[in-house]
Amino acid sequence: MGTSGKLHNSLMEILVVVGMDQHTGLVPENLPVQSEKLPGSLPLFTTAFEPQVLAACAHEVANFPNSSSIFDSMASYSTSTWSSTIPPSPARGVSSSIPPSSAKGGKTRRSQSLRRLTPTGKHSVALPVGSDVISSLPPLCLPGNAYVYKDRPKDHVHYLVLTDISGAHSYATVYTFYRKFLASQVRGKSEYTIRAVPLSDAGEEGTKTCFVPLCCCMVSRAPYFFTMRDCLTCLVQQLHKDVRTMEMVVAEFSSNLALVPCPPPGQLAISFQLNRFLVTVPPAMDPDRRVLDMPLHYPFLSFSTDAILTLVACILTEQRIVFLASDYALLTIVMESLLTYVQPFVWHNVYVPVLSNSMVDLVEAPGVFMMGCHVSHREKIIKVPGIVVADIQSGEVFMADSIFDNSELPRFPRAAAEFFKEKCSTMKFQYDFSYLHSPTPTSVEEARKHREAWQQELSRDIQVAFLQTMVKLFRDVKEYVSTVNHRRYLNKDKFLAAQEDVDQPFFREVCQSHMFKRFLQDRMDQKRDYYSIMEETMQWQGEEKAEIPDNKIIRRRKISANSPGQKNRRSGVVNFGLEVNGPTFTFQLPTFTQAHRKADKANPVHFYESCIQKLTNYLENCEPSMRAPYLYLRGMLHAAEGSSMIALEDFHNLCSVDVKLFPAE
């Protein structure tokens, strides 16, 4: 057996802790080094301070760049030292889509400390995310600047999307809470030192009690925003109760979460226990669709149906769009929902859902983008010409620098708009209205299940309505595809001429977009996906009655689509990634404290072995439709524990059951 490595399909890529503590002190934001010795008296509760990276933990690495000593609570953790420069990371070559904050000018204390963020030494283990991304996280974790408070603010959560140099996204959930410290100003400087409040809670003369923000940022390759929120809630509860140091609790948490695999697309969910709380990781319901663990109705609570269709038109025509909100948590969720609405079209342009206060100037950059910032910057944003502004707070959608003339906004085709509005007329976007007629749930668990069922059904209805609308807009594209010299191309002139005169500007802009080119290529390749199946369904059943087709019909159409004599080897049925009522199986992971340790020593191999044994038992008696996801999971775990040949055997068997689940990397 080989040595254990990182689980390729791990739920958590890295956990980063950002904030200020007794090791960093409180350093005013953008304070030049040459002015640090000048006397000054900056007010404690109105000064923005520099947040810093306090921890970066992943798999077998636990790094704390600002601690006074190297932390090594487990034998499997890296005991690396810190270099004074940041070389390129060999792990993923990831870079943030946001320029480093040190580029703002002026050498700051924060930029000095962050340059120690790369481990060196013969025992170093590389972090899975580039050090430049880690260094860019502080302003994104505290986008409204880092202040300390006289009274403890409420904990809050917001969400981020990070982009690497290849355009691939990573997704993050940030949980911000506040710890109590005693602050005293350094004599002759503008900085403050802070230390934990003693049990007596009696501050010394010249000290002030303050609450300092601490952000726990969990990063994943998949958009598990709400699942990560559940995990971080458990972590923060543990930090409040645990008598151990913050470093030890964070290291153990990241060690455990790095062992949790993401489920493959299909009907198999994965669950695990965190501090007696059951966390469930849902699967993507189809390989062609991304994971969805959040409700999709939030845009409908802020915007009218007409405004939502205008935003969809802006996305399809690749406009420069900026979203405004008073709550940073709304920005990413609303924008992610809109990008889900336009599937199978995929946004490949610049995408930064949350801009910190120091990054707002990026909205003046050229090119196509989707960005989000706090509503307090509205006056600045609306002065930038050519930007579509979507104010989540007020529900307005307008063209910046032309508030009184929105004729430049793309116009969603009238017939498709009426079709979509008819579909939405029966949807209930308010939970309280939907359940006024229902008896009161008798337990918290029953109430939670009621709400989850309502959210799942509503999200399904929204996805179906938008998918049908996309089909109505673009189903005749294939009729204008011609073949010349064995090459297929779209006759755009004929396609545009076939549209209503008033709709032609919209379709002309869409045809010029990169999103449409990829969509067109899939149609010309006769790609068999949820869009093509919905297209067929609307032809069979009619537009008004088209819903998710019956499984038997899908299976029959799937078989008939194969070449003559070719056996349909897919054990399951084709779906849209929209079903919510079908059977879903849950694979519960072993308890971390039992399976992760043997002889008081942490070893991920022991955890992998326990999971593999459970999966092997399930494979002996599972339903045929569940064989593929079980093989996928077991193969991934075999690869992580170092049994490469056994993993290849599982993946070989997976190909004969469901080739779509075969790992692409």
TrEMBL record:
Protein name: UDENN domain-containing protein
Organism: Branchiostoma floridae
Pfam families per the UniProt record, alphabetical: DENN (PF02141), TPR_DENND3 (PF25570)
Annotated keywords: Guanine-nucleotide releasing factor
Gene Ontology MF, one: guanyl-nucleotide exchange factor activity
PROSITE patterns in the cross-refs: DENN (PS50211)
Domain UDENN: 91-530
Region of interest (Disordered), residue spans: 85-123
Phylogenetic classification of the source organism: Eukaryota, Metazoa, Chordata, Cephalochordata, Leptocardii
Gene3D superfamilies, per the entry: 3.30.450.200, 3.40.50.11500
